[in-house]
Structure prediction request, 224 residues.
Amino acid sequence: MVKVYCIDIKDAAIDSDWLKYVSEEKRQRLSRMRHPQSLAHSLVGDLLVRYLAVQYLEVSNEDLHFETNRYGKPYLVDPPKPFHFSLSHSGHWVVGAVSQNPVGVDVQLMEPIDNNFAQRVMTPEAYEHYLKLPDSQRLDYFYDLWTRQESYLKLTGEGLANGQIGKIGHYNEFLLRDNGMYYQMRTLESNYKLAVCAGNVDFQLVMAHVPLDRILPQLSHSRN
Ligand SMILES: CC(C)(COP(=O)(O)OP(=O)(O)OC[C@H]1O[C@@H](n2cnc3c(N)ncnc32)[C@H](O)[C@@H]1OP(=O)(O)O)[C@@H](O)C(=O)NCCC(=O)NCCS
Prediction:
C-alpha cells in the first residue's frame, strides 16, 4: 500500500522555531534558500517525513538520521523496518508518499506553458499528440505526462542523471521504457496534478490531508 499525505501551506505562518526539529545539515541548506516559498516547501517536507517516520516506525525524532544518495534522493538510514518515502512540493502543497516498497510522488501546479517549451521537453510522439488536442486539453495532457515521469524519477532516485530520460513521452513510451512501474493519478485541486509511481500493478493508494499543527507535537524532541 502507498499512503500519500498532503499539507496545504497556503495560510501557514512558517515559524523559525520549527528549525529545531530538523538536522543541522538541513538547517544549513535552508539558510541558503532565498525564496520564502522554497524554504517553506523544504522545511515542511522535512517535518512531514519526520512525522511519518515517527508514526510508522515508533521511534523518536531525535533518533532519525537521513542521508541523500548522490543525486539528492533522501532516505532514512537503518530504519527498523522497510520505510520508503518520496517528497514533492508545488504551489501551496507539500506531499509525502510512504510505503514498504520503493515509491515516487510528484505534485505540480499546472502553470501555463507555451508550445515552444512543450516541444523542447516532450518526445516527438508526445508533442504530436499534444498538438492534436484541443487547446482546453493540452495543459492537462502535458502535466499528466510530466508528473508521471517525475514520479518515476523520484522513485528511482536518479533524477535525470542516467541520461536515458530527458524528455517526457506519450503513454506508450512509458509502458515500453518503465517496464514494471505503475502510475496512479489523483487531483488535489483542479489546477494541480499529482502522480504516484510504484512497482506493483494496482497498488492500493490512500490519500490523507494532514494539518500542519498536527505534526509538531509529534516531534517534541529537538535536535542540536
Ligand atoms: C528531484 C527531481 C527528480 C524533481 O524535482 P522537482 O520536481 O524540482 O521537485 P519536487 O518538489 O517534486 O521534489 C523535491 C524533493 O524531492 C526529493 N529529491 C531530491 N532529489 C531527488 C532525487 N534524485 N530522487 C528522488 N527524490 C529527490 C527531495 O526530498 C526534494 O525536497 P527538498 O528539495 O526539500 O529536499 C529533480 O532532481 C529532477 O531531476 N528534475 C527533473 C526536472 C526535469 O527537467 N524534468 C523533465 C521532465 S520529466
User: Anything to note?
Assistant: The first helix runs from residue 24 to 31.
